[in-house]
Amino acid sequence: MDNYQRPNLLLYIHPLASFCHKVLIALYENGTEFEAKVVDLMDEKSSAELLQYWPVGKIPLLRDRAREETIPETSIIIEYLNEFYPGKEKLIPSDFSLALETKLWDRFFDLYISEPMQKIVIDRLRPEGQNDFFGVEGAYQNLRVSYDMLEAKLNTTRRFIAGENFSMADCSAVPALFYADTILSFQTTHPKLSSYFERLLERPSVKRTIAEAEPYFHLYPFYDKIPERFRKGKS
Q: Which strand ranges, in their side-by-side order, compose the sheet holding 9-13?
């Protein structure tokens, strides 16, 4: 007899999606039990269940079966986990000032690294003749400014972006920087940012997330820019 009980938490994801990586890292940091369901947004059958809960159709999306709650948006998902499924790693500090700083840099990585990065990636996928050259140049400029701001911010003794402890802001930083570096590398121009990124890559939660994404990396338009150490399964 099968006594398997489904976890309370169901996370709709795609293993290649950067914003999904942000939430996966948060879950893995605390060993939170959940079920992942891969969704292909281009496939009507695959995305039907997701759209039932969240017609906007964006991933990741968290469904709490026990509380019958649907939680969209990465930062809101992590805040929800912090409140209702807390673990040993408190990803949002209790101290108000630290929490505010954490949320600021969480939004910074989402809005000023991930969003311009995604604009450039999406433009690469557009049919010939439909490219947004002006928008892409603006996205590159936004990345340059953001890298400079992060380099200045990291000119402290802090180990992580918002303090001494790993936080939601660092969960946001990993996928943002991972993909942005394949588009406009900061490795030789921003040493403090590079060192910070390498520290993040050493965390088991990050290693696991990247390893799970690796079989899908060949679908990424800038695949040839992903360092060899992260694409072991492809030649």
A: 35-38, 9-13, 61-64, 69-72
